[in-house]
Structures are given as C-alpha cells and as structure tokens.
Amino acid sequence: MKRTLTLLTVGSVLLFSSVARAEDPLACVEVDIVKTLLSDFGGGPTRISRELPAQFPAIALPKTMELIGGKNMFNYFTVAFKSGLPMEAARASVDSALADAQFNAYERPAMRLASGGFQTPETRSWQNSNSFCHRKYGHLTAAFEKAAGNATYVMLTGSAQRSPDSCDATRASLMLAGVADQPSKMPQLSLPTNATSTGYGGISSSGDEASTSIQMETSLSPAELVAFFGAQMTEQNWNEETHWSGQKVSGSVWISADEQNSGVLSVISLDDKQYKLTFQMTMLR
C-alpha cells in the first residue's frame, strides 16, 4: 500500500492527517523523515510519500543512497536520501551522478552570500548546497546535512514547472543576485535553545534592502526575545537606536557600526508561544 502523509498549515497552526488512524499521527514517523522532510513546513498543503515524486528527473543515483521519501509542495518537490558516505564523499558521488545525467553545475551567488539571517538546521543545510540545471528538467539543488554514524542526508529539490529557457533565466537571475552584497552583511541570529521553528522564510533581497524571517514556538516572552536577539546584534557590532514592547508587535531598531545599514527587528505574537520574527535591513549609503 502506498504510504502518504499530508500536512496542512493554517497560520501558525499545524493540522496533520495521515492514512494511519492514530491519536498522534507523527508518533510512528521515522527520525530520518522528520529530519529531512518535516523540518521545513512552509505554508499550504504538503504531500509526503515513500515514493519518488512524478516530477523527479531520470538520474542514476549512487547505490550508497537509500531513498527516505519525497515531498510535493506548491510548485516544487524535495526527495530525501540517506547516504552511507561522509558528507564530502556523498557530495562528490551526487555531483558525478548529476553530471552523467547532463546536469550542469553552477555557482549560486545569492546562496553563497546569504550566510546571515535566522539560523536553523535548514539554513545550514541550504548554505551547504550545490546547484545544477538541465535543459529538460530545469533547476535542481542538492543540499547535504550530517546524519548519525558518519552518514549524510541528501535532499534534492527541484521545480515542478519547467521550460526550455529555465537554465538561462535562472543563471541570469543568480548573476544579478550576486551583484549586491546586502545579504552578506545580514547579521546571524541563532534561535533560543528551547525554540522550535515552524516555518523558514530565508533571506530575500532587492535593491538596497534585504530581509529574513522565520516562525517559531518558544516559552520566551516577546520582551525576552527582543533582548535575546539584541544581545546577538550587539556582539556583531550593531548599535541599538530604540526598542519597544507592544500588545502584538515588539521590536528594536539598529544601526551597523559602520553606519552603512539600518535594521528593524520585529517580534510578532501569533498565538500562545507562537511568533513570527523578521529582520528588515536597509542600506543607508
């Protein structure tokens, strides 16, 4: 029988349904699935299966890679594998397999520069990634994360929408993104140890602005969160201009030590212990 798990997110509330009739539908989910396919919910309906998604390209992957499962969400898919090789060896084997399948590798300046922002395991995984493109299959990202026992998780993510010009369009957009160095100046903001991320927004940039966002659950109060992230800002040579505490939105305003950038940290209360965090950075000169 085909085993699937459907996830629906409404605001910050997670609604789960599965084919299993159980009080806790995630109680029997394997740890490999949790670490690779359930680590980033995002928003909207998500379908997870033990099978490869229909959109997955024809790639002869190394025999050292064991399929964990596939995830379909909006216009993209992710397929997770567990390799018995250490990370660098796993990366080399995937690079070779994709090259044999006529995928061309290229650097992603935006990903290389986006080293700041809210830090989660997903953030580190995406920062440790390779990018490829195929004239027929379009763009594909290979992300790597260490697993127990010197093994490696490999997540292959691609778009369900393809076009003959997708490689040229993607390469052009990445080259344009690499021109601006705004994301490289984004401070790194680590989450509290007791926090659980429920949605990762990454870093986006346009012109003289860049922003990062995340949703999380924590027992800390809004004021404590503002102080927690404020301490990290201070350590990274940002100076606080002001801070405030409101009923729904709390936050602080910052200026970089070189006075070239300003930043606004916002802590938005969504529900009991649920928050959306944003940091909006603007180039001053």
Task: Return Rg in Å.
Answer: 20 Å
Overall pLDDT: 75
- What is the helical fraction, as a range of percent? 10-25%
Uncertain parts = 1-26, 108-114, 172-182
Number of strands: 17
Q: What is the topology, as strand order, of the major beta sheet?
A: 2-1-3-4-5-10-9-8-6
What oligomerization state is this entry in? Answer: single chain
Distance N to C terminus: 60 Å
Shape: elongated
Please give the count of helices: 6
Helix/strand/pairing category:
alpha+beta
Major sheet details: 9 strands, antiparallel
Instruction: Report strand %.
Output: 35-45%
Describe the structure.
With about 280 residues, the protein is α+β, with helices and mostly antiparallel strands. Helix content is about 20%, strand content about 45%. The protein has helices at about 30-35, 85-100, 110-115, 120-125, 165-180, 220-235, and strands spanning about 5-10, 15-20, 45-50, 65-75, 75-85, 105, 115-120, 130-135, 140-145, 150-160, 190, 195-205, 210-215, 240-245, 250-255, 260-270, 275-285. Strands 2-1-3-4-5-10-9-8-6 form a nine-stranded antiparallel β-sheet, with helices on both faces. A six-stranded antiparallel β-sheet has the order 12-13-17-16-15-14, covered by helices on one side. It has a two-stranded parallel ribbon with strand order 7-11. A hairpin with a 5-residue loop joins β9 (about 140-145) and β10 (about 150-160). The radius of gyration is 20 Å and the shape is elongated. The relative contact order is 0.12.
